[in-house]
Write a structure and sequence with these properties.
By secondary structure, this protein is α+β, with helices and mostly antiparallel strands. It has 4 helices and 6 strands, in the order H-E-H-E-H-E-E-E-E-H. The strands form 2 sheets. The protein has a 4-stranded antiparallel β-sheet with strand order 1-2-6-3, with helices on both faces. A two-stranded antiparallel ribbon has the order 4-5. Strand 4 and strand 5 form a beta hairpin. It is globular, with a radius of gyration of 15 Å.
Length: 98
Amino acid sequence: MNQERLTKVLVSPIVSEKATFVADRNNQITFRVLQDATRQEIKAAVELLFKVEVESVQVLNQKGKAKRFGRFSGRRRHVRKAYVSLKAGQEINFAEAA
């Protein structure tokens, strides 16, 4: 796989209450990824950038919410999320990785 592409696959980590709950309970990290990213690309990108071993990747597409502002209606962006399961004993510390 193209190493330049792998550095762009992960858009950002998702830091929310649900994401931290999932991280503590299932040893999974949640990322916002590109719309056309595949599971294999996400796995390779996490292993390349954070030097950890990935067990599995689960991907979901979240539709953007329809919103109105007065008489103008619009839609928020669609989001593709990846839940990355790490192998036992593996951990990502975002403070050190940056």
